[in-house]
């Protein structure tokens, strides 16, 4: 794998200043992120007017969401908004195991059952043209809040609130659905559509506003959205609100997990999996009920957390069994045909296919789609690798139904179309493997606590805003011990030693060039620097 610098490093200038300036040419953006504007969102004005009308006429509304963390969080937020307006509101989250993905016929049937005259979809609906028409034919109006890519046809809805309807120059493109709902909340608080261009300092319901910032930050992390511009602003304020939240559900959750001030890593590895697990395991209502529980319902909140933990344990067990089987099948496929995009089929739980696809794509360095049979269809999920736009690739075939975005898709393939689907993807254009980028090539002597402290304000780190990384050449491995999962030990260059850890196996006495991320670690009341070695090459 090749390495490449993110920018041209000038050795005569301060290293930290150069890295900060490259990430944030206007340093104000680092300390005072862009204010969010709901006015630029397409369809937001029509959505606000229609919901106000529903409140005036005492209509019943059904909120239909997706089963993942962003979808269930956004569903809960929309339910809270509508009930706060005095609207009689129900919700429906399709069971992925029985109903499939997105806004389907089951959602329309539920709307009829509860007598809803308005359906609001969140995190789904953009590509569900036929279902929207079915609702319209039944006299039910539909509003869509979604961030997924547009299909060949757009649904005929009252309002399509999706940033991808417009150009990136006029509207931030990478909001998650929970953030769209939060902006809708602020838009509802305006006295007149269009008279407030940015979020006001005080919301109509300050307590709800603080909760929504916290929830939007959780959704942004769990949906692996870019940590840039508006999303970075959401994370910075959202993490702050999450740390001091008075919301009973989030307070109890933090206490149970022993995470008083959750950060990006805590959400990605602890909170996020709990919010995703119920939908994966066929119990998508769990998160919505947990987040919409009334303040005094401590038992209901505690039960919700217990249920989420139970579903997450089941998810881990299913994943533990499926991954080796999928890996073995993938290796056999590569040995036979070396396809551009892997398609792996097996008898696995539908809820863990996306995780397995992500692991295969990461390990085997190519996009992967993992499918399981459900009746006369193969259903599953795909994850991209190497910059290939998987959504765009699938746009060129009629052999499947699909939705999602460039990096992740959900799809359904008829049994009789599977062979053609596999052949089509096997010959898809191969995206060149991108280099691993680093910020500067430096000796160990330039890696110190002062540098790391000055780079701390660049956080939070995630897609689009990675941890600062460096290359150092001529590094000697002094100690190294490996386990099944990683390698750790001691490195030295010049007279400067560092402890390291890596997914790669380094051997004592090796002399190599390394690409790494230096991080602070605190242990035994002492702060030191640990190098996370991302890659290495012989010197």
Q: Please summarize the sheet with the most strands.
A: 5 strands, parallel
Number of helices: 17
Question: Within the largest sheet, what's the order of strands?
Answer: 3-2-4-5-6
CATH architecture of the largest domain: Alpha-Beta Complex
Poorly predicted regions are 192-203
Mean pLDDT comes to: 92
Rg from Cα? 24 Å
Q: Total number of β-strand segments? A: 18
Distance between the termini: 15 Å
Into which percent range does the helicity of residues fall? 25-40%
Structural class comes to: alpha/beta
List the helices and strands and how they pair.
Layout: E1 3-5, H1 15-23, H2 28-31, H3 44-56, E2 60-65, H4 69-84, E3 88-92, H5 105-114, E4 118-122, H6 129-137, E5 141-145, E6 159-161, H7 177-189, H8 206-222, H9 229-244, H10 248-257, H11 264-280, H12 285-291, H13 298-337, E7 342-345, H14 353-364, E8 368-374, E9 377-383, H15 390-394, E10 400-404, E11 408-414, H16 418-426, E12 436-438, E13 440-441, H17 449-455, E14 470-482, E15 487-493, E16 496-502, E17 511-523, E18 526-538
Parallel strand pairs: 1-12, 2-3, 2-4, 4-5, 5-6, 7-8, 13-14, 16-18
Antiparallel strand pairs: 8-9, 9-11, 10-11, 14-15, 14-17, 15-16, 17-18
Helix pairs in contact: 1-17, 4-7, 4-8, 4-11, 4-12, 7-8, 8-9, 8-11, 10-13, 11-13, 12-13, 13-14
């Amino acid at each position: 794998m090749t390495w490449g610098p993110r920018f041209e490093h000038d050795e005569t200038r301060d290293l930290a200043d150069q890295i900060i300036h490259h990430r944030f040419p206007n340093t104000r953006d680092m300390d005072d992120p862009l204010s969010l504007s709901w006015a630029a969102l397409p369809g937001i004005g029509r959505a606000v007017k229609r919901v106000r009308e529903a409140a005036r006429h005492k209509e019943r509304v059904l909120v239909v969401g997706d089963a993942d963390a962003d979808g269930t969080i956004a569903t809960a937020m929309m339910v809270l908004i509508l009930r706060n307006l005095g609207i009689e509101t129900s919700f429906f989250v399709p069971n992925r195991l029985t109903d499939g993905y997105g806004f389907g016929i089951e959602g329309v049937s539920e709307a009829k059952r509860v007598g809803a005259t308005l359906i609001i979809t969140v995190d789904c609906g953009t590509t569900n043209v036929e279902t929207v028409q079915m609702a319209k034919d039944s006299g039910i109006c539909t509003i869509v809040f979604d961030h997924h890519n547009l299909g060949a046809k757009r649904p005929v809805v009252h309002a399509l609130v999706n940033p991808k309807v417009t150009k990136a120059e006029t509207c931030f493109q990478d909001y998650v659905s929970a953030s769209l709902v939060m902006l809708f909340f602020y838009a509802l608080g305006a006295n007149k559509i269009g008279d407030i261009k940015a979020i006001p300092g005080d919301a109509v319901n300050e307590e709800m506003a603080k909760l929504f910032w916290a929830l939007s930050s959780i959704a942004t992390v769990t949906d692996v959205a870019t940590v840039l511009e508006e999303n970075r602003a959401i994370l910075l304020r959202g993490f702050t609100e999450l740390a001091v939240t008075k919301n009973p559900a989030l307070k109890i959750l933090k206490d149970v997990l022993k995470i008083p001030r959750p950060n990006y890593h805590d959400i990605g590895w602890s909170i996020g999996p709990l919010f995703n697990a119920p939908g994966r395991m066929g119990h998508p209502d769990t998160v919505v009920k947990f987040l919409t529980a009334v303040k005094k319902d401590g038992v209901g909140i505690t039960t919700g957390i217990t249920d989420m933990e139970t579903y997450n344990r089941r998810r881990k067990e299913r994943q533990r069994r499926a991954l080796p089987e999928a890996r073995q099948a993938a290796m056999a496929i590569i040995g036979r045909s070396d396809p551009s995009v892997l398609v792996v089929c097996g008898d696995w739980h539908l809820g863990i296919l996306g995780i397995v696809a992500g692991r295969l794509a990461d390990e085997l360095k190519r996009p992967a789609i993992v499918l399981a049979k459900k009746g006369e269809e193969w259903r599953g999920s795909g994850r991209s690798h190497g910059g290939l736009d998987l959504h765009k690739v699938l746009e060129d075939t009629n052999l499947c139904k699909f939705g999602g975005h460039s990096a992740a898709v959900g799809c359904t393939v008829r049994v009789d179309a599977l062979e053609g689907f596999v052949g089509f993807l096997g010959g898809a254009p191969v995206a060149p493997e991108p280099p691993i980028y680093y910020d500067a090539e430096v000796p160990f002597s330039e890696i110190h606590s002062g540098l790391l402290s000055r780079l701390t304000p660049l956080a939070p780190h995630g897609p689009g805003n990675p941890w600062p990384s460096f290359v150092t050449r001529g590094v000697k491995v002094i100690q190294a011990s490996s386990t099944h999962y990683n390698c750790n030990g001691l490195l030295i260059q010049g007279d400067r030693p560092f402890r390291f850890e890596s997914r790669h196996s380094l051997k004592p006495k090796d002399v190599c060039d390394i690409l790494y991320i230096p991080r602070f670690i605190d242990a035994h009341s002492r702060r030191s620097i640990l190098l996370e070695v991302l890659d290495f090459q012989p010197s």
